Recover the amino acids of this structure.
């Protein structure tokens, strides 16, 4: 039983890695720079997914289909403004809060859709993200509460960090599958990958 669980966790980490690679490709297009994805980190027993107060925004999704679960996209404080200015074309001046929030959610939608599509292709199924929920205050605490409501305390979390060519953090993807049953797909390769613009 333990060996089966470990195999399921490895499989979920591999699927997340492939999905994160596709999300990194979309992020690279949005930012106009190379974005790297790191090998996923698996956390169990309710370990925290955040990193202090490093994240200025979180975009949360529920996933429904061939791999039910939840997905959080955490955006560092500085990267959030960089991303929004790139998307809106506003290189200077004050960003209206409504515009900032709308652009962040649109970026989150793009990344979530690419991740879900890649996983669905591997599993030869359908995987759809819900409309996004945006959080900009106490992101780590809100993430823990949101995941606890949906997956319960101690749920498995798979983290994928995205960084640019200089090593600057671009985002953290937190995947929380609600089930590992019935996974059927060719084994994807694991490891880091770089995606250019």
């Amino acid at each position: 039983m333990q060996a089966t669980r470990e195999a399921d966790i490895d499989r979920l980490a591999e699927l997340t890695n492939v999905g994160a690679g596709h999300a990194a490709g979309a992020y690279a297009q949005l930012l106009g720079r190379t974005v790297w994805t790191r090998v996923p980190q698996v956390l169990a027993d309710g370990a925290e997914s955040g990193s202090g107060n490093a994240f200025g925004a979180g975009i949360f999704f529920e996933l429904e289909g061939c791999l039910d679960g939840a997905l959080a996209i955490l955006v560092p404080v500085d990267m959030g403004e960089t991303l929004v200015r790139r998307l809106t074309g506003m290189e200077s001046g004050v960003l209206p809060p409504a515009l900032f929030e709308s652009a962040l959610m649109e970026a989150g939608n793009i990344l979530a859709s690419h991740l879900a599509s890649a996983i669905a292709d591997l599993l030869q199924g359908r995987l759809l993200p819900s409309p996004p929920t945006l959080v900009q205050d106490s992101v780590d605490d809100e993430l823990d509460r949101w995941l606890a409501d949906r997956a319960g305390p101690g749920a498995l979390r798979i983290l994928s960090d995205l960084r640019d060519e200089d090593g600057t953090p671009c985002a953290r993807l937190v995947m929380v599958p609600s089930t590992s049953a019935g996974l059927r797909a060719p084994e994807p390769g694991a490891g880091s990958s770089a995606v250019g613009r």
Q: What stands out?
A: Helices lie at 2-31, 77-88, 97-123, 139-151. Residues 8 and 52 are 30 Å apart (CA to CA).
